Amino acid sequence: MQKTLLTTLLLSTSLLFSASAALADDCGNRGVLDEKFCDENNDMVADSPKDPADWRDPNTLVFTYTPVEDPAVYKDAFFEFQQHLSAVTGKKVVYYTVHSNAAEVEAIRSGRLHIAGFSTGPTGYAVNLGGYVPIAVKGTVDSFQGYNLIAITRKDSDIRTMADLKGKMVAHTSASSNSGNLAPRALFPALGLTPDVDYTVKYSGKHDQSIMGVLAGDYDAAPVASDVFSRMASAGRINADDFRILYTSPRFPTSAFGYAHDLHPDLVAKINEAFFSFRFSAKMSETFGGADRFYPVTFKDDWKVIRDIAHATGTAYTKQGLKQLAEKDAAKAAKSAAAAAAKAN
Fold it and tell me: Domain of 73?
């Protein structure tokens, strides 16, 4: 099972990348972007294609949101926005469920995905390798919605400080996750705690699985996104009083929303209009921690802290980095499938 999943995912990635060199053009600057893309205005995201023949104007727009938690929850949560997007663009909008960060990056790169929300960490892969253009983050009239890395343990645990994590089993989420892996690796050493050296790292796959794993006693502690923790508490999935927060980081931007760089400029204008004219319903606002709109951002400015964390941890938003991410995603999928099969028997 593991070999089959890994082979399929890696083959898909290889096929997507194989034609890149042939598509390179007379680009004056591409920075760190893949050779498929150009960045002559130096905004760190892919420019619209120079040849109008390369602009895409699909009849049906495909939208998705990052696979942070239960995908079904977010398919329903974005239903009202999808209706608004359809009304503004005049196109049918469908939701495409993805189950891994690598799969979402491949979908935007291959053209199967047109508009998407990417988690904070994987946004860099989507920009550099997928031609993704982030334009918004959930927020309010005053600012974008942020979140923190929090380190949690059970309240009845004898772990009371970060130093107490030495020698323990700590759940990180996935290799590409900002708050679930990259930020802890960049920030914890200053606290005298180096992941994989001072404590054992075990990848859970997702933030909610780390949280539930800590609660169940599968892990001693976990670094997770504060917004996911808060949403789970608000939804009644956990009782926040059952946990102790050991550490809170500086504020990071939440998931980025944007579009594929090669969509027709007229369509892009309507997509921008749809995002920035939409106002969340009371239910949607409650789901997303009080945000009531999409707040404008740029990858160059608002993702600088995230890129700095990635660089500090040796993470490169490259093909090799995505390949490694795909391998880890496939391994986790195989492990989950094996665990489910064992439980069924």
Answer: 2-144+254-340
Cα torsion 179, 185, 187, 188: sign: positive
Predicted local confidence at residue 69, as pLDDT: 58
Bridge partners of 223?
Answer: 151
43 and 168 in a single domain? The answer is no
Which CATH number does the domain housing residue 201 bear? 3.40.190.10
At residue 278, φ and ψ (nearest 5 deg) are: -80, 140
Based on the domain organization, do 56 and 104 belong to the same domain?
yes
Q: Which of 94, 98, 72 is nearest to 9 (CA)?
A: 98
pLDDT at 324: 76
Given 204, 227, 252, the domain boundary residue is 252
pLDDT of 24 reads 47
How far lies 222's CA from each of 67, 254, 292, in Å? 19, 19, 29
The whole-number pLDDT of residue 329 equals 67
Q: Are residues 6 and 135 in the same domain?
A: yes
Number of structural domains (the chain) is 2
DSSP codes of every residue in 3-27? HHHHHHHHHHHHHHHHTTGGG----
Dist. CA 289–CA 228, nearest whole Å: 9
The alpha-helical segments, DSSP class H, found in 176-290 are 183-187, 207-216, 226-234, 265-277, 282-287
In a domain, 77, yes or no: yes
Write out the two tokens for 325: 């991410």
How far apart, in Å, are the Cα atoms of 40 and each of 29, 245, 296, 315? Answer: 5, 45, 22, 25
Kindly state whether residues 138 and 285 are assigned to the same domain: yes
**Whole-angstrom Cα distance, residue 240 to residue 230?**
8
| Weakly modelled stretches of the chain, pLDDT under 50 | 1-6, 8, 16-24
The pTM score is 0.74
Token pair listed for 310: 């990635």
Q: Is residue 89 within 8 Å of residue 278, measured between CB atoms?
A: no
Are residues 226 and 302 both part of a single domain?
no
The percent of the chain in helix, strand and coil, each rounded to the nearest 5, is 45, 20, 35
